[in-house]
Amino acid sequence: QVQLVESGGGLVQAGGSLRLSCAASGRTFSGWTVGWFRQAPGKEREFVTTNSWSGVNTYYADSVKGRFTISRDNAENTVYLQMNSLKPEDTAVYYCAATNVRVGAISRAYTYDYWGQGTQVTVSS
Q1: Following DSSP, what letter does each residue of 63-124 receive, concatenated?
Q2: How far apart are CA 107 and CA 122, in angstroms?
Q3: How many CB atoms lie within 10 A of CB 21?
Q4: Distance CA 83, CA 121 (A)
Q5: Which of 4, 28, 83, 104 is the most core-located residue (most Cβ within 10 A)?
């Protein structure tokens, strides 16, 4: 059974930075598509970024492009989300997700089989 555990959330002022981590147990991330999603109160879960199974291709939501960076360390079974220039509208619970699906709708939550418990990110103005 694959388990994902996020960490690194917290409270930060607008313009600040945070780095989220997502550690996997039960298997390696190698060869899997990994992604980050977020959900703000009263809103649906939304796509943030994904890194393809090969690690070569990365996609970002327009709202975070140029500010957020996804990376992975397969040897450590960890995926990271570096968030810079944070804005109050980035406030949400952030979830990491993983799937062995290699093609298709990898920006859609339903594609992902495994999810972490979420970590809260709060950006104050």
Answers
A1: TTTTTEEEEEEGGGTEEEEEE-S--GGG-EEEEEEEES--SS-TTSGGG--EEB--EEEEEE
A2: 23
A3: 17
A4: 10
A5: 83
